[in-house]
Design goal:
With 341 residues, this protein is α/β, with parallel strands linked by helices. The protein has a domain of 79 residues. The chain is built from twelve helices and eight strands. A hairpin with an 8-residue loop joins strand 5 and strand 6. The structure holds iron/sulfur cluster.
Amino acid sequence: MARPSDALTLDTPAQERLAADLLGWGAPRPQADRGLAGALREQLETGLATLGEELEAAAARERRGRLLVTKTRLDRQVCDGLQLDAKPFEHTRASVRGILAHAMIERDWDLDRQRDPATVVAEVWHDEASRRPGDPASLSAWMNAQPAPEAAALQAELAELVAGFREVWPALPPALVQRRAEEPVAVSLCEGRIQLFGRPDLILDSRRRDDRARALVVDLKTGRPRPEHDRHELRFYALLVTLAEGAPPFRWATYYVTEGRHEPEDLRPETLELTARRVVDTVGQLVRLSALTDGGARPADEAALRLRGGGWCFTCQREDSCKVAAQARAERALSHPDAML
Ligand code: SF4
């Protein structure tokens, strides 16, 4: 395959659709409201200031003297019990498939699609499996523990994902598009007591610098779509990019790799303001829990926890003994009997 030129080449109807609908290729970009980033920062600082000395005390209890706000902590805001006692992350076939798909798509891009997908997959597989094989919790340990037929089946699936991605995504000309993959984005607030942090899967930026909003933030998903959850994650990244770069993206989108489809959301200041409110609410919860637990893991008063059961309870260590979770399950069984079959 030819190396990408300085022009966008569209080889398939799917690429044409993606260029038009997601990349917005050739379409005018909205004016970048340079005041928006400052207004969002102001909104965050003002909201966080209402937490007063308790915020200061909570930050002081943290290892580096600052409270870290990530997409995971925002997700867990739904319930105090989950924020305190989420199950530790463990590699599963689905999570490994997602991690490797990201790495392979990225490598394929770096190699300008010069090798066939199976070769790219084999190379990344080898690299990742060699990384920390001695650590039993590592990705490489999980990969090396797979029997040969399972490993081969997963590699074949991943090669299909890479090939499918090529089919839908055009090669992006580096002279026109700057591509940043999993770049850390950190934003410091309240004189360093709060840090917002994330690694958006993909930030695509025009090389052109003018008064237009030109960045596109993309989150790649390989698992089952969870529309509300996925949208919240992405909006947090959009907020981070806006605050860090001083200008908002023109669009942000979840791209479902397995299905080859995207869910875009165009820039609306109201959406980012809503996300900033969610950040303030989450920090409020973290500060309250920090006071309740005195920075430790156990609250002095369990009854003071605000619990809310729902579809997230399976990710919580308290699930087996939690009455609120049981109540939520019972209510769901009544309202959605088919879903319980
Ligand atoms: S099981 Fe559910 S309701 Fe109970 S603490 Fe955990 S997340 Fe909250």
